[in-house]
Amino acid sequence: MRRLLTSMALITAVLFTDSAAFSQTPDAAAATAAKEMTIYGTALGDGWQNWSWAKAELSVELGGSARKPIKVTAGAWQALYLHHEPFSTAGFAKLSLLIQGSAPDGEVRLFAIADGKVIGEGYLLKISNTGWKQVEQPLATLGAEDKVIDGIWVQNASAVDLPKFYVTEIKLQ
């Protein structure tokens, strides 16, 4: 009898353990598998604000396109600055965005911001007017892996005015 009770208790424990493991909904499983924060889609993501000191127009219409990017006109060293209350980047691996210039041979620098200051040297990015460029920059190269940050910059990397450029689909993934 004692063996039977022990066996029944063991079977019950296994059954309840297995059912708990399968009780997670598909949405919850997907959320755990891929963490993502939208900074800007066709508008600013939740909690994000435009603190730019370059001229930045949000949700610009582009000739029938579904994209509504940020149009940035940046003088020397000016930047698109998107700010958020401080948050941890733990669980995120990269900053991704689409960018397009209006002239060939432009350069911008991507920075992560902590306590209102740039982290490290950032990442130099060449832009041109040949179409949208997909950028996926590891947070480690921005010095922002597993850090508390409060914003990002896309800064004109030169001492001369940069022709307008467009940025959209900005995400932490």
Quaternary status: single chain
- CATH class category name of the largest domain: Mainly Beta
Which class of secondary structure composition applies to the elements?
alpha+beta
Strand content: 35-45%
Task: Give your account of this protein's structure.
It is a single chain. The protein is α+β, with helices and mostly antiparallel strands. The protein folds into two domains: 33 residues; 138 residues, Jelly Rolls (Sandwich), CATH 2.60.120.430. Helix content is 16%, strand content 43%. The chain is built from two helices and twelve strands, in the order ααββββββββββββ. Strands 1, 3, 4, 6, 10 and 12 form a six-stranded antiparallel sheet that branches. Strands 2, 5, 7, 8, 9 and 11 form a six-stranded antiparallel sheet that branches. Strand 7 and strand 8 form a beta hairpin. The protein is globular, with a radius of gyration of 23 Å.
Short summary:
With 173 residues, the chain is of the alpha+beta class.
